[in-house]
Design a protein that fits this description.
CATH topology: Rossmann fold
Pfam families: Usp (PF00582)
Structural class: alpha/beta
CATH superfamily: HUPs
Number of domains: 1
Radius of gyration: 15 Å
Shape: globular
InterPro entries: Rossmann-like_a/b/a_fold, Universal_stress_UspA, UspA
CATH architecture: 3-Layer(aba) Sandwich
Low-confidence stretches: 116-121
Order of helices and strands: EHEHHEHEHHE
CATH class: Alpha Beta
Strand content: 15-25%
Domain UspA: 1-138
Protein name: Universal stress protein
Number of strands: 5
Family: Belongs to the universal stress protein A family.
Strand order of the largest sheet: 3-2-1-4-5
């Protein structure tokens, strides 16, 4: 039913709730799991000019988040590919899904940006509204 599953993550605790669901789906359907961290382009512009320390902190957060997901998936026998891209999160997720012919997106209902979510709508909501790939939205456990 599903051959390619996408797990977008921002490294937040809320996003962690979707990991076990995505890995379980990949395991059940013998699907490849794609893990994508989108660094919001507005975040990268705020880093510029603030020294290497801030950029290194962002890179470390991304690396920690991605490596733990890859480890969990690999330990459960799931084939996993991880990528980091810079862009507008919902657009980048949908473009990535389209380019790789993703069958299912599994993501959390909430991420790091609480105020942004209230003012402009969550990334998950935008992926659901504007995309054409099925989405499993996982609420934080």
């Amino acid at each position: 039913m599903y051959d390619r599953i996408l797990l977008p993550t921002d490294g937040s605790r809320a996003a962690e709730s979707a990991v076990s669901h995505a890995v379980s789906h990949a395991e059940r359907y013998d699907a490849e799991l794609y893990v994508l961290h989108v660094v919001d382009e507005t975040e990268t512009t705020s880093i510029v000019g603030h020294g290497d320390e801030r950029q290194q902190a962002v890179e470390a957060r991304v690396e920690d988040s991605m490596s733990s997901i890859v480890t969990e998936a690999s330990q459960r026998g799931v084939s996993v590919t991880d990528d980091v891209e810079v862009g507008t999160p919902h657009r980048t997720i949908l473009s990535y899904a389209d380019e790789r012919d993703i069958d299912l997106v599994v993501m959390s209902t909430h991420g790091r940006s609480g105020v942004d979510r209230v003012v402009m709508g969550s990334v998950t909501e935008r992926v659901i509204r504007t995309g054409d790939v099925p989405v499993v939205a996982v609420q934080r456990e």
